[in-house]
Amino acid sequence: MSNNPFFTVDKISKSFGGLQALKELSFHVNKGEIYSVIGPNGAGKSTLFNCINGIYKPDTGSVKIQGQEITGLRPDQVAAHKISRTFQNIELFSNMTTMDNILLGRHMHMKTGVFSASAMLWKNSFSAKDETEHRRKVDEIIDFLDLQASRNKLVSQLPYGIQKIAELGRALATEPELLLLDEPAAGLTNEEREDLIFWIRDIRDELGITIILIEHNIQMVSEISDRIIAINFGKKLVEGTVQEVTNNPDVVRAYLGAD
Amino acid sequence: MMDFSEIVTLIVRSVETGSIYALVGLAMGIIYKASEVPNFAQGEMATFSTFIAFMVLTVHGAPFYVAFVVSLLFAYILGIAFEFLCVRRAKNPTILSMIILTIGLQMVLYGLSGWVFGTEQRAFRLPFSQFETVEIGGVVISHLGLATIIASFVLMCLIYWFLEHTKTGLAMRASQQNSMAARINGISSNRVVNLSFGISSIVGAIAAMLFAPIITLSPDLMWDPLLKGFAAAVLGGFASLPGIVFGGYILALIENLFGLWFSLEYKSVVAMGIIVLVLYIKPSGLFSKHYQRKV
Q: What is the distance in angstroms between the Cα of B131 and the nearest Cα belonging to chain A?
């Protein structure tokens, strides 16, 4: 397995003008792992996610999933490689309901194009079955994440914590194999965070989805991660198990010490 | 004072002209929603497509529906080609540079249509006469006027249906609301913008073909409707397609009232006045909420 890891990032660099956000950063993630990325603000964590899912093109280096090169692809092409993500500042379709937002996550899986409207007219048509199937999948996700009460509300009217969960739901609807979560617990109450930890475990255990997590809450990271990478100034400080990383003096100085 | 039938007639006339304004405004709105660019080449793109219909009709003697379909096909290709060959190639585009790009294309197409088709005024005829009339409930309306109202209404319903009930329409709405989120869900924003230019060009061409019989076909055909359509879109709010439609009807009504009470000669000034007034009072337009994109 270690010869052929599920997901690899190999020496990627990215700079914005004079600021080098990532410097030859490398790591790999095994299938079914919960892998956390920690580091102080401005360490390059979100830039890393943006380089993986195609919002930025890395200057050099390569990103591969299951041996396939995805470096420099557009976000919609990366999505087709079964990589999904959430954002630090929620990116939802604010004028749509929770249901429609999650349904949009099914977009790639919808077969019927222009004629899906016929679903409204002919109940037994192929596209009607297709549509029903997608709505059923969305309802499964809504049940899974306890979003029933928000199902038909506009997401802009939902509390912050629920919006974060709705965004997670949309990411799940794409049926990813790799899920990138950018500070999913930021701004959540303690209770919501407990739920989130529970769901993240379930996503891995029941759906078999590999997870890369950016998180500031070190307690949460220690609780659910299999391995952790600590980065600072766009470079790898240390990588390893929870014990190895949280006890590393460099990490304590750069990150934990700053708390 | 006006009596009842006069008022109804005024409203019907306004709906008739307003339909054209609404369609031109919609054409601009569709592109604006997808790319935040007001496309000032809209009018010339539509005029050029109408010239194609005219050529198919007169030179090749084809029946009207053939010319109509060929023209719409051409309009679609013109739209997507403009997006693919010009708009997408712009390096580090700002809104201003994109607007200038569309004005550039407007000039190119204007010159080209004069060069290829000639600058003389030509009679463009639809199978609906401007001079034969029907009377419905006491209101006299020309066949052309009735056809214009019905055709625009059907087209608006089609656009609504497309955006609300199809996979592609949903992708377009999603992309307009949050392009980043749409992209990570597998929606190609390039395709959405490209398609928007194509559809918009078709809508513009239909407006031009309905308008051409009223005046005459020449490279100047869409100058005035474009200004009016733009004013309608500003009035209703560029970000709201239903708002643009209402903006078109309201603009036509205001124009007609102005013509009736003040001056027929300066009717065209009304549109300009409305643009300025709306930008002073409610820049996002009457019907659209102003979205502040978070950074």
A: 39
Pair A211, A203: CB distance under 8 Å: yes
CB contact under 8 A, A117 and B183: no
Per-residue confidence band for B294, with pLDDT thresholds at 50, 70 and 90: very low
Neighbours of B150 (CB within 10 A): 12
d(CA B132, CA A232): 79
Which of B173, B181, B186 lies at the smallest CB-CB distance from A108?
B186
At position A67, the amino acid (one-letter code) is G
Encoding tokens for residue A34? 């919960």
Q: Does the ipTM surpass 0.85?
A: no
Domains and CATH numbers, chain B: 4-281 (1.10.3470)
CB A224 within 8 A of CB A201: yes
Mean pLDDT of B137-158: 91
Cβ distance B186 to A110 less than 8 Å, yes or no, reads: no
Contact B50, B61 (CB under 8 A): no
Contact call for residues B39 and B99 (beta carbons, < 8 A): no
Q: Is the pLDDT of residue A256 over 70?
A: no
| H helix intervals, B212-263 | 223-236, 241-261
Q: How far apart are CA B225 and CA B204, in angstroms?
A: 10
Alpha-carbon gap, residue A213 to A88, rounded angstroms: 11
Between CA A31 and CA B162 the distance in angstroms is 41
CB A83 within 8 A of CB A212: no
Bridge partner list, A68: A65
Closest by CA position to A12, among listed A34, A28, A1, A31: A28
pLDDT at B282 over 90: no
Report d(CA B226, CA A102) in Å as an integer.
39
Domains of chain A, start order: 7-256 (3.40.50.300)
B157 touches chain A (CB under 8 A): no
